[in-house]
From TrEMBL:
This is Concanavalin A-like lectin/glucanases superfamily protein. GO terms for biological process: carbohydrate metabolic process. InterPro entries: ConA-like_dom_sf (IPR013320). One of its GO terms (molecular function) is hydrolase activity, hydrolyzing O-glycosyl compounds.
């Protein structure tokens, strides 16, 4: 083998090794958790975050949280943390408050009207009930039961678990609803917090933290939450 041939072979091996070494990093990034402490989104003033209205920092039992006024406060993030995920768990620590709209969209990830996932509530009198919503192709499902009510003006942990075959909702670690659902990964869109992507159904209350895990999480491994 000539010197030139050896050099070409050496460079080929190095290139192949480097290429293989990149894949685990990409895979690791795509399978890492996404965590938003809402107060940090306000403090950091990232170019990826558009702030609508004047959401305020408030105290919570867990640290600084963000208060949404129910009329024009929201965050719009140029991020799609659910992209290509076949299953995931979305958790949120929040406090829904009195005098909000009946229908409130708190977290919206994906497209405005196509493939998407939402955490929602319905407020009736002094109470609320949970709604975990997913749209995947022609399949759409809202996990909601008006009998599963909870008092407003308290802090809660909610979770929405999505797998290729099912949807499941939890409130304070207790399973509420589960239904079969054929889910395909969301591939496009963005994220809104505090309102639906098209600026309807505003949320009134406070949010401390949102966490997205790219797998089905058991209740024992949910975010730490003390009521």
């Amino acid at each position: 083998m000539t010197t030139t041939s050896r050099l070409i072979a050496f460079l080929f091996i190095c290139f192949s090794f480097a290429s293989k070494g990149q894949n685990p990093e990409i895979k690791k990034k795509n399978n890492s958790k996404t965590e938003w402490v809402l107060a940090n989104l306000l403090h950091e003033k990232s170019n990826n975050v558009e702030i609508n209205g004047k959401p305020q920092i408030v105290a919570s039992p867990y640290g600084e949280a963000i208060s949404f006024n129910g009329t024009d406060d929201a965050f719009f993030l140029n991020e799609l943390p659910l992209q290509s995920l076949q299953e995931f768990t979305v958790e949120m620590i929040f406090k829904p408050e009195l005098n909000g709209l009946f229908e409130q969209r708190i977290l919206h990830i994906g497209e405005s009207t196509k493939d998407r996932m939402l955490l929602e509530i319905r407020a009736v009198g002094n109470n609320w009930y949970f709604d975990g919503y997913a749209a995947s192709g022609t399949n759409k499902k809202a996990l909601i039961d008006e009998k599963l009510i909870h008092p407003l003006e308290q802090w809660y942990h909610v979770a929405f678990v999505v797998t290729p075959k099912s949807l499941t909702t939890f409130v304070n670690g207790k399973q509420e609803l589960q239904e079969d659902f054929s889910f395909l990964p969301i591939q496009s869109g963005q994220t809104s917090i505090g309102v639906r992507m098209n600026k309807v159904c505003w949320f009134k209350g406070a949010i401390y933290k949102i966490r997205i895990t790219p797998k089905q999480v058991n209740p024992i491994d949910f975010m730490s939450f003390i009521k």
